[in-house]
Amino acid sequence: MSLRAVIIDDEVSSREIIRNYLRNYCNQVTVLGEAGTVAEGIVLIKRESPNVVFLDVEMPFGNAFDLLEELPDRNFETVFVTAYDQYAMEALNQHAAYYLMKPINIDELVKAVAYVEEIISREEMLQGKVLSSTLQKVEGKITLPQQDGFQVLNVSDILYCKADDNYTEIFLAEKKILVSKTLKHFEESLAEFHFVRIHKSFLVNINEVVKYKKGKGGSVIISNGKELMVSASRKKELLSYFE
Q1: Where along the chain do its domains lie?
Q2: How far apart, in whole angstroms, are the C-alpha atoms of residue 98 and residue 81?
Q3: DSSP string, 37-64
Q4: Packed helices 106-126 and 232-240: angle between N→C axes, nearest 10 degrees
Q5: Angle at CA 126, nearest 5°, toward 54 and 236?
């Protein structure tokens, strides 16, 4: 598939390197334009509607996170490009599809493009598709520890789980239960029941997902109407359940 890209970086030499690498090693990418500041980048994105943005973190009069905040309904994947690795965690929280360190490694750039291409391709393939009923509700029970013993819960009644430090909130249709176990514990315990980790904070029952939104970096709507963010690194696994 064809990727429509823009490059936003205050260093002319960095933009030139990315542009040349893309032209020579990623011929599925068309560079629509370039910008050197946050303000110029916002204008460029709104004008060209790219599906992938190569975005430097540190720029004059703002940074990458300022730019993304100005585009809350963005419909593109973000590849962060920076010389500073301390931004990695914030990049993940901003749902970056990939994080490239300067000086750019060609192999890593090719991997980033391939990852973005696969995610966008899967999203487009699923649009308007009639889904067959490949996911059957798996009957089972799980015990939730409590001070005076444990509660027994039908796995199919769980909509999603949310991390709360070393605790986990279990969300049902009508209530939530706080349990003194980590989300990692439930991710492992519920793996065979079609529960998938979509974010560092969320584990969802795939059978309860009623809508997927591309948006920021991706989100799902659960059957109770709750919208949960999807980490870019988790998109591939999530989308595979609907193919």
Answers
A1: 3-126, 141-240
A2: 9
A3: SHHHHHHHHHHH--SEEEEESEETTEEH
A4: 40
A5: 50
Cis peptide before 72 (omega within 30 of 0): no
The answer to whether 231 and 202 are in contact (CB under 8 A) is no
User: Topology of domain 141-240, per CATH?
Assistant: OB fold (Dihydrolipoamide Acetyltransferase, E2P) (2.40.50)
The reported pTM is 0.72
Helices (H), 59-198: 64-69, 88-93, 106-126, 183-189
Cα angle 97, 100, 101; round to 5:
155
Judging by DSSP bridges, how do beta strands 52-56 and 77-82 pair with one another? parallel
8 A C-beta contact, residue 5 and residue 53 = yes
Cβ atoms of residues 114 and 77 within 8 Å? no
CATH 3.40.50.2300 fits 3-126, yes or no: yes
The model's pLDDT over 124-178, given as tens digits with 9 standing for 90+, comes to: 877 655 544 445 556 789 988 877 888 899 999 999 999 998 999 999 998 999 9
Instruction: Classify 29 in phi/psi space as left (phi over 0), alpha (psi -120 to 50) or beta.
Output: beta
Backbone φ and ψ for 119, nearest 5 degrees, come out as -60, -50
